[in-house]
Design goal:
Blueprint lengths: L13 E4 L9 H28 L6 H28 L5 E3 H34 L4 H4 L2 H27 L8 E2 L6 H6 L6 H34 L4 H29 L9 H24 L2 H12 L6
Parallel strand pairs: 1-3
Antiparallel strand pairs: 1-2
Helix pairs in contact: 1-2, 1-9, 1-10, 2-3, 2-9, 3-5, 3-7, 3-8, 5-7, 7-8, 8-9
Subcellular location: Cell membrane
GO molecular function: G protein-coupled receptor activity; olfactory receptor activity
Main location: membrane
Length: 315
C-alpha cells in the first residue's frame, strides 16, 4: 500500500471486503441478526451508562470505569458493524483506502483503551479489597481521570503508529480482503512489501498493551483471591467474588478473542475462523458486557429499573 504515486505502482484507492458470506440468500438474514445485535449493544451499554449517571450509589470508581468501558463498547461495535450492514444490503462491497485506514485506526484506538481500562478496573478491585483503609486516597477522582486519560494517550499512540506504518506498505494483485472489516492480519496478506517492521511493531504493542496488562490483572486478582479467602463471612466472600467474577469474565472474553485474532499472522490464506473470531471480538464481547455486569449486580439492576420507570433514586 502506498499513499502517493509511484512510477511502477498504481495508487490504491479502495479495497473489496468479501464480508461474512457471498451467498445472496444468507445476506438478508445476517443483516437482521447483526442489526438487532447492534441495537441491543448500543441500547444495553447506553442503559448502563444512564444508570450510572442517574444513581448516586453508583458514583464510585468501579462504576466510573464501567461507564467508560460501556462507551468503548459502543464505539468498537460502531466502527465495524454499520459498514458491514451496508455491505450486506448492497452489491458494492468496496471500501475506500482512507476509510479502511480510518477503521483500522479507530479499532486499535478503542481496543487499546479497553486493555488499559480493564487493568485499571483490576487495580481498583485490588485497592478496594486489599487496601480498604487507603482506598479513597489512592483511587481519588484525580487518579481515576489520570488512569482513563493515560489509557487514551497510550492507545492513541499505538493506533497512530500501526496505521502510519501500514500506510508505507505497497499493495499488489487483487485488492481483496477476506474479512468484514479492515485489520492488520488481513491487510498484511495483500501487501507485496515486507511486513517485518509492521509485525515487529505489532509484537511490541502486544507485549506492552496485551501481555503487561494481563500480568498486572493476574497479579491483582491473585492478591484479591487471597484476601477474599481470608474473609470469615460467607456473604462477604460471595459479594466480593461476584463483583470480581464479572470483571474476570469480561477480561477472559476480551483477551481470548484478541489472542486468536493476532496469533496467526503468518497464515497465507485467511480462514473462515478469522471471521468468527472477528465477530466474537467486535460484536459478541460488547453485547455481553452489559449483561455480565448487570445480571448479578443488584445495585445496577435497581438503577436500571429506576431509569426505565422514571422513579427518583433514594437518597
Amino acid at each position: 500500500m502506498d499513499l502517493g504515486p509511484s512510477e511502477n505502482d498504481s495508487i490504491v484507492t479502495e479495497f473489496v471486503l468479501l464480508g461474512l458470506t457471498e451467498a445472496p440468500a444468507l445476506q438478508p438474514i445476517l443483516f437482521i441478526i447483526f442489526l438487532l445485535a447492534y441495537v441491543a449493544t448500543v441500547g444495553g451499554n447506553v442503559s448502563i451508562l444512564a444508570a450510572i449517571l442517574a444513581e448516586p450509589k453508583l458514583h464510585t470508581p468501579m462504576y466510573f470505569f464501567l461507564g467508560n468501558l460501556s462507551l468503548l463498547d459502543v464505539g468498537s461495535i460502531s466502527v465495524t458493524v454499520p459498514a458491514m450492514l451496508r455491505h450486506l444490503m448492497s452489491n458494492n462491497k468496496s471500501i475506500s483506502y482512507s476509510a479502511c485506514l480510518s477503521q483500522l485506526f479507530c479499532f486499535h484506538l478503542l481496543a487499546g483503551a479497553d486493555c488499559f481500562l480493564l487493568t485499571a478496573m483490576a487495580y481498583d478491585r485490588y485497592l478496594a479489597i486489599c487496601q480498604p483503609l487507603t482506598y479513597s486516597t489512592r483511587m481519588s477522582w484525580g487518579i481515576q481521570q489520570a488512569l482513563v486519560g493515560m489509557s487514551c494517550v497510550f492507545s492513541f499512540t499505538n493506533a497512530l503508529t500501526q496505521t502510519v506504518a501500514l500506510s508505507t506498505l505497497k499493495c499488489c494483485g487483487p485488492h481483496v480482503i477476506n474479512h468484514f472489516y479492515c485489520d492488520l492480519p488481513q491487510l498484511f496478506q495483500v501487501s507485496c512489501s515486507s511486513t517485518q517492521l509492521n509485525e515487529l511493531l505489532l509484537f511490541i504493542a502486544a507485549a506492552f498493551m496485551g501481555v503487561a496488562p494481563l500480568v498486572l490483572i493476574t497479579v491483582s486478582y491473585a492478591h484479591v483471591a487471597a484476601a477474599v479467602l481470608r474473609i470469615r463471612s460467607a456473604e462477604g466472600r460471595k459479594k466480593a467474588f461476584s463483583t470480581c467474577g464479572s470483571h474476570l469474565t469480561v477480561v477472559g472474553i476480551f483477551y481470548g478473542t484478541g489472542v486468536f485474532s493476532y496469533m496467526r499472522l503468518g497464515s497465507v490464506e485467511a480462514s473462515e475462523k478469522d471471521k468468527g473470531i472477528g465477530i466474537l471480538n467486535t460484536v459478541i464481547s460488547p453485547i455481553l458486557n452489559p449483561l455480565i455486569y448487570s445480571l448479578r449486580n443488584p445495585d445496577v439492576q435497581g438503577a436500571l429499573r429506576r431509569v426505565f420507570t422514571g422513579r427518583r433514586p433514594s437518597e
